[in-house]
Fold:
Amino acid sequence: MALSPRHLIAPGVAVALLGSALAWAVLHTRPGVEVGDRAPAYSAWTLDGREVALGDFRGRPVLLNVWATWCGPCRVEMPSIQRLYDAYRDRGLAVLAVSVDVGGARDAIRAYVEELGLTFPILHDPGARVSEIFRTRGVPETLILDGEGRIVKRVSGAAHWDSPGNRALMEHLLTGR
Structure:
């Protein structure tokens, strides 16, 4: 009995579906970077072309924020990040806000920063390596690192970063109490 091309359609579809399911499982079951883990090595470029690495801030707490200019919740939370930075930068808090806007967005990022009066370092990662390295789920997403580079808090979505709870966390990270 000779097989016609019609007889190969169902097995071909089954193989394609199985392959797709396997690919989905591999991509969605990779271990993430979670609270308690040491932050992976990461660096990106400032809008002025200077490379900044997380390792540059060893010994200091870091608020690492992943955002984009088109993200409404990012715009809502940025002023509270600025207020937290204003309150704790002289005591050692580092804030790194990583824009994942695609290439060619530098002017839009600069306008955003100027409009909101942001004074902490703004990094641009148009390839969204930060999202891959930290397994972020969207924007905004923020990780708080202690002075040893361990993740102590991770928040998906906008937050009030100058809230009493977050200020208490900063006090603890800066004083050990």
Q: What stands out?
A: Residues 5-28 form the longest helix (24 residues). The chain has two domains: 1-30, 33-175. Helices lie at 5-28, 72-88, 106-116, 129-134, 164-175.
